[in-house]
Design a protein that fits this description.
By secondary structure, this protein is an alpha/beta fold. It is built from eleven helices and 14 strands. Helix 7 links the parallel strand 11 and strand 12. Helix 3 packs parallel to helix 4 and helix 6 packs across helix 7. The structure holds phosphoenolpyruvate and manganese (II) ion (MN). This is 3-deoxy-7-phosphoheptulonate synthase.
Length: 339
């Protein structure tokens, strides 16, 4: 981080700022130019708030030259992180394939979909028991009973379970029943929830990107979880809000190389919530794997016309099976294999 001082700053003011920098446990390097003086701060600046320095009347502005996150930063952890989700590896040269309905609706439904997803080649089962719905009058999910259905489906198929946690009240139950804990787009900046899952979740976290979150905001949310004690974070791009209204969201595939450059965390793609239309899922899923993502999370439903949530973006098992056949081929070309 660099502090640029105002042109007429005197020696005494410079000394005061140097003392302030040193009080943060950092080393200050003063460099005097023709017109301006700058102070370079060396050390761990992640805990320094530039605004704390900008309040000084002699400071013109403060510039970051490194990222404000440390634990998620690839600079401090050059190798890819490989996260173990109850035996299924995510990251490195592994391709995670998560499939299942938007929400758990009944035991018959989930077990039927889980069997077909597994036969297609999926290696994890998704299903929402607690649903973050825009309308309070829409189906809110089956809650605890839904989690029990997922557990039954895991018993049948052996597929690890992915489900969304909306409240810290259910962390103990998720630790017991769920293998990968999803934090949804709408909760990406629920900082109290992030701190609690960091502190208390014994399972890895799938952190979805917020509807209009920048890469840095998203990574900072991962940093919250990691700094609170849970290093096992997988990121999920699920489409962002843009001016386009034809699609539900716009899938940002650039997130794959950017996140891989900035962090060591795996990134998976959810093309279902991105496009909001079932026929967009196949081309976007194939493009995502070609671009090097670590996995796909796709909504699959055996009767989308009657789904209680997100039917229009759900694939039928037959289409999903055909998609995975192609996805696996693309994965081989880019060095990603399905376990
Ligand atoms: C979901 O996965 O069903 C979901 C609600 O996702 P998002 O948080 O990305 O909208
Ligand atoms: Mn959904």
């Amino acid at each position: 981080m660099i502090i640029v001082l105002k042109p007429d700053t005197n020696e005494k003011d410079v000394k005061e700022l140097v003392n302030k920098v040193e009080s943060f446990g950092l080393v200050a390097h003063v460099s005097k130019g023709e017109e301006t003086t700058v102070i370079g701060m060396v050390g761990d600046v992640t805990k320094v708030d530039p605004k704390q320095l900008e309040v000084s009347p002699v400071v013109d502005h403060v510039m970051r030259v490194s990222e404000p996150y440390k634990l998620a930063n690839r600079a401090f952890h050059p190798e890819d992180s490989i996260i173990d989700v109850s035996g299924v590896k995510v990251g490195g040269d592994h391709l995670a394939l998560i499939a299942g309905p938007c929400s758990v609706e009944s035991k018959e439904q989930v077990i039927a979909i889980a069997r077909e997803a597994k036969a297609a080649g999926a290696n994890m089962l998704r299903g929402g028991a607690f649903k973050p719905r825009t309308s309070p009058y829409a189906f809110q999910g089956m809650g605890t009973a839904g989690l029990d259905i997922l557990v039954a489906a895991k018993k049948e198929t052996g597929l690890p379970i992915v489900s969304e946690l909306m409240s810290a009240d259910y962390i103990d139950e998720f630790n017991e029943k769920v293998d990968l804990v999803q934090i949804g787009a709408r909760n990406m900046q629920n900082f109290d929830l992030l701190k609690e899952v960091g502190r208390r979740c014994t399972k890895p976290i799938l952190l979805k990107r917020g509807l209009s979150a920048t890469y840095e905001e998203w990574i900072m949310s991962a940093e919250y979880i990691m700094a609170s004690g849970n290093p096992n974070v997988i990121l999920c791009e699920r489409g962002i809000r843009t001016f386009e209204s034809y699609t539900r969201n716009t899938l940002d595939l650039q997130a794959i190389p950017v996140i891989k450059r900035l962090t060591h965390l795996p990134i998976i793609i959810d093309p279902s919530h991105a496009g909001g239309k079932w026929w967009l899922v196949e081309p976007m899923a194939k493009a995502a794997v070609a671009a090097g993502c670590d996995g796909l999370m796709i909504e699959v439903h055996n009767d989308p016309e009657h789904a209680l949530c997100d039917g229009p973006q759900s694939l039928k098992p037959k289409k999903y099976t055909e998609l995975l056949r192609q996805v696996k081929g693309i994965g081989e070309i880019v060095g990603k294999h399905v376990q």
